[in-house]
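Bench log, entry 3. Co-assembly request; chain sequences pasted below exactly as received.
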Amino acid sequence: MNTPLPPVRATIALGAATILWDCIVVGAGPAGAATSLRLAREGKRVLLVDRGCMPRGKVCGCCLSPEAVVELGRLRLPLLRRASIPLDTLALSSGGRTARIAFRGGEVLSRETLDTELVVAGVAGGVAWVPGVDVVAVVAPQEGPVRVTLRSVADGTVATIEADRCVLATGLVDRVRGKARDRATEDRRGVRAAGKRCVIGVGTTLPADAVDLDHGELRMTVGRQGYCGLVRLEDGRIDVAAAIDRAALREGRGVADVLLAVLGPTSAAVGPHLADALRSARLTATPALTRRAPLSSDGGRILRVGDAAAYVEPFTGEGIGWALASARIAADAILAGASGGGVGDAYARAHDRHFVVPHARCRRVVSWLQNPALVTAAVASSRIAPGLAARIVSLVTGAGGRGARL
Ligand SMILES: Cc1cc2nc3c(=O)[nH]c(=O)nc-3n(C[C@H](O)[C@H](O)[C@H](O)COP(=O)(O)OP(=O)(O)OC[C@H]3O[C@@H](n4cnc5c(N)ncnc54)[C@H](O)[C@@H]3O)c2cc1C
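Structure output for the full assembly:
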């Protein structure tokens, strides 16, 4: 077991943060932390704020895609390289059948460690960090700097802080008020891909002995009500992350029972304790798993990165890599220094170039998952057809994955 990470203390008091910043970054998940780190390393005065404190967990499968691993490498973070565990097997189950497929290029890391180490690296690189503040409004007047209004979660103190630019990295749960045109909307393409279903995320972590599962194995089960991933984290705990059809919850069952229905025979296959562990765990849910918002507004003075910009369902486990890539693209656009709307346009163009193809692939996978019989057939065939196993891995993980039947 690793020692728990210590809290990352504020580097500046809220009251002392009222200088004119080059950039205020709202949200310290991978997108916000990486954006602020990149800008601060290039000498920008950056304030990073989050309503939470680090370390903190998040509903997430904790799998780093091959792209995430490459993006983290670009950030030069040696501590993370030592903490993460290589993924070597995807065990994909559906309809009571399981295909075990070799998988290379991905890693596993808890969100407590990943997000905390990114913030620690940012602070070391010169980022000013204020945890425990909720950003309640971001306004960009015609003239003058962007104004960001923050409220202390602990005592309700309110402060308005100014910056040349604001990057919103607030994730899927984005409640920052602003101008009407800056509001996020549900991603209609995602909703269409998911048919009439509304899918929400659910997650928890379980004690190390809740499940028999080797380090490096991702156990993914697809059922009628959604899909669920189990993986062992670097400290031994089991991460559980699922996307489930909200309608299944309306049938009167609790979240744990819906998860157990999705897992079906997998539950027994991973040992006798999973059901009890899930029923006594604290399960956290997310809002609907599709959204899309303007990448840039107010003449490029407000940018969105990570899930706050665009989100598609998490089956392919690429959200962290995409968050880190969008942070790099946004930071590059800001550092290239085009004035006003130029930054927003440059960011939006580069973002579209990078994401159109992988987002479309992810939507195809999501539509495929609507038909569990098809998934079961693919799992059954991949047990005898190594080419199909490789194809499944590259489809669900992106071009970087390499798969073969075990
Ligand atoms: C069930 C599930 C499983 C997943 N599995 C994987 C996986 O295995 N691999 C993978 O790569 N991706 C996975 N994802 C996706 C991944 O979790 C996200 O894509 C990733 O966290 C996006 O990072 P982010 O920085 O954009 O947002 P987040 O990580 O959500 O960070 C947003 C931050 O903003 C803060 N914040 C929000 N609003 C405010 C406010 N008003 N004021 C101050 N702070 C605010 C929040 O406190 C939070 O810290 C999964 C998602 C789900 C739901």
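The first strand starts at residue 20 and ends at 26. The chain has two domains: 14-57+111-186+291-364, 64-109+189-288+365-405.
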